[in-house]
Amino acid sequence: MSKMVTANENKADSNLLDFIKLHYRSFQSILILVVMVVLMTILSPYFLQVRNLLNVVRQISLIAIIGMGVTMCIITTGIDLSSGSIVALAGVVAASFGQANDPILLAIIAGLAAGAAAGFLNGFISAFGQIPPFIATLGMMIGARGLALIYSDGRPITGLNSTFEFIGGGYIWGVPVPIYIMLLVAVVSHILLKKTRFGKHVYAIGGNRQAAVVSGINVKRNLVLVYSYAGMLSALSGIILAARLSAGQPTAGEGYELDAIAASVIGGTSFSGGIGTIPGVIIGALIMGVLNNGLVLLSVSPYMQMVVKGSIIVLAVLMDKWTNR
Question: Can you list the domains of the chain with their CATH numbers?
């Protein structure tokens, strides 16, 4: 009897350890977020105001949406450097179809199609052309920005439909519309990664690509799908941004790819592949949002803010390396 009890206790301890190992990165990110919120609350009396908190979440919504697609790329041991440029390209395309008397649905479909096409090219070149994702998406980063400038003739596209503008600047029950969109995308992306065969294949490719091939997984097809989805999410952020700015800006989205990668890594996604979650991306984006907002409230110079943000990204990568050891 005592041996059976001991065996059950050992099994329970083992399950607890496995659970901690599995969710260690998430716990780590949540702890950092909580500490930052407490610190900002102590340092600034304005931080916990409802308007300020909603502003923080609205600001990070675009980065979080992009980050969900980037996370899938990183899980497969890839990367996407073209997100910011796709934001601009999709924004000007959607704006051109979202003029005063145009149907809003057409503008959304056109913008998403532009982003999905760019993402498809990223995945196709990387998977079938055997070109590293870093190079493939770097080329798209430059090319998509150029296309955005050509398409708009280097000028903002204005005169948008008021319904279209509601996507980026509207409120529902006092909450900004981009927050609802972010939550919807998060649910869909989480289901894709955790509840579908596609998601299992994504993790398998990142865990061991050769083993995935031997297991019968069509690696190339899945990589194309991953990058197409990432491109579409970047395009969605571009549409929201254009709606909020009331114009399609060909220079919009600069640096968004780096913020999205930072949010993903801070949220626990590993550059080694096979590890990453959608809730982790949102937590990572919130950490960056709280940091940016807190530094502004404390009147820290914009130049110092860049130094702090860069340091945190480096520390996140170092922690990732240390954890993998």
Answer: 32-320 (1.10.3470)
